[in-house]
Amino acid sequence: DAGVIQSPRHEVTEMGQEVTLRCKPISGHNSLFWYRQTMMRGLELLIYFNNNVPIDDSGMPEDRFSAKMPNASFSTLKIQPSEPRDSAVYFCASSHGQSNQPQHFGDGTRLSIL
Amino acid sequence: GEDVEQSLFLSVREGDSSVINCTYTDSSSTYLYWYKQEPGAGLQLLTYIFSNMDMKQDQRLTVLLNKKDKHLSLRIADTQTGDSAIYFCAPHNDYKLSFGAGTTVTVRA
What we know:
The complex is a heterodimer.
Chain A: E1 5-7, E2 10-13, E3 19-24, E4 31-38, E5 42-50, E6 53-56, E7 65-71, E8 74-79, E9 88-95, E10 104-105, E11 109-113
Parallel strand pairs in A: 2-11
Antiparallel strand pairs in A: 1-3, 3-8, 4-5, 4-9, 5-6, 7-8, 9-10, 9-11
Chain B: E1 4-6, E2 9-13, E3 18-24, E4 31-37, E5 43-50, E6 55-58, E7 61-66, E8 71-76, E9 85-93, E10 96-97, E11 103-108
Parallel strand pairs in B: 2-11
Antiparallel strand pairs in B: 1-3, 3-8, 4-5, 4-9, 6-7, 7-8, 9-10, 9-11
């Protein structure tokens, strides 16, 4: 079975540019999560969607960050404008059914903002 | 919010057992997960335990939970070089996973 698919795997861009990260959750999963991982702060939950609706976006750092889930099989995380401190690995995860089901992670997007 | 503490590093000889310890603060966590992260990869779900259990065994993996002390451990029997990775303890409450800094396990020959 296909796992959570993220693209691109690596992104290098200059500060000020718009960055769009993409995620395809596991088919049938109705919860989707975006995380950010850095050495300094570890793993942080950015936003949680359930049935395509954002439920908790309290982890989104600032207005430069936005996330959408237009349908059950696709989500995007956008940073505009990007800054060097946004450099991190961004993970998407999905889970099925009730809230305590395990989350399955994608391989992440390694983002470098120069 | 939930605080999760793990020791940062563990070095173990190939063939020996590894024990990774974790303490957490939220006693209402209903599930407690262990994830493994290899370099350049995402987090792989290893195993989990329900909060009403004391122990769970899954092949080479044994999870022990002391709910009173809010202490969780993961034992890996017969540790292999492929077990070298970062291991995260992740208590789960409602939809939220709380992560510690992770324990980097290095397996030496």
